[in-house]
Structures are given as structure tokens and as C-alpha cells.
Amino acid sequence: MQADAGASEPGPGAAGSDAVMSTAEQRELWVEEPAKRRRMPDPVRTAAVRAALIASLTLIQAMVATLCTLADSWLAFPMVLSSVASTVVATWGVLDVWVTRQVWNQRNGVVSVPASTARRLRKERRQARRAARSGGRHTKNIRARGGAGQLTHG
User: Fold this and answer.
1) What is the DSSP letter of 33?
2) How far apart are CA 15 and CA 7, in angstroms?
3) Strand stretches in 4-57, DSSP E
4) In whole angstroms, what is the distance from residue 140 CA to residue 145 CA?
5) Which of 24, 29, 47, 54 could be stapled to 93 by a disulfide with Cβ–Cβ 3.0 to 4.6 Å?
């Protein structure tokens, strides 16, 4: 009997109930998360997509060549030859991605983020050098202005 009573009333999972509408308003359906890695530059991404397509077609072609060989089909020999050629093209595609990435990095620069400890140590060394230089200049100027043996009051 209780199962019938629960079935007649719209529960929290019912499509038109007020409970579902209020919870839908409280939480968002899509939550934007920051990317873990930076997006690849457009030319590099284009080369990577091209290489992935060529590699996938090469794998399909190799599988067809294998199946044709197992079936003793006349198509086996041409498929094996074209698979070898496709492997060369797929290798070229992967090298193209690598070269495009290197060229992009050389032309547009790489944002290098050193370790925080290295940056902090360099900053401390730089400040120490500046302090030593400015301290040395300050004492030089004082000596030059009022050095011993000079008559400043006539």
C-alpha cells in the first residue's frame, strides 16, 4: 500500500515537480573548469590533427591488408604496398608536428617559468649585488666630497 501512495505523489525525481525545479535553479548544469594545460597554437594543432588522421587511416589500411592476406585475396599485395607508403606518410606527419612546434616556439618564444626557488634565489642575489654596488657608491661619494687633507673652508 505504501508503494502505491508514493507512486501517486510526484517524488523528487519527477519531471514537473517543484522540488526538481528549485534544485535545478540552485546548481548550474555546466561548470567551467580552468584548463590544466595551455591550448596548442593553431598551426601546431592543425598539424597534430592532420597527423592523427593520417595515422588512423594507416592503421585501418594495415588492418585491411592483414585481413586480405589471411583471406588469400588478390588485394593483399597492393594493400601491403600502400600500407608501407602510408607508414612513411604517417611518419612525415608526426615529424611535421614536431617541426611545426619547434618553429612556433622559435618565432613566438616560449614562456619559461622557472622553479619558484630558483627565481627567489636569483632575486636575492640580484638584490645583494645592487645593495653592494649602491653602498659602495655612497661611501665613494662621501670620501670624494670631504676627504682628509682638503681644505673646504677657506
Assistant:
1) -
2) 14
3) none
4) 9
5) 54
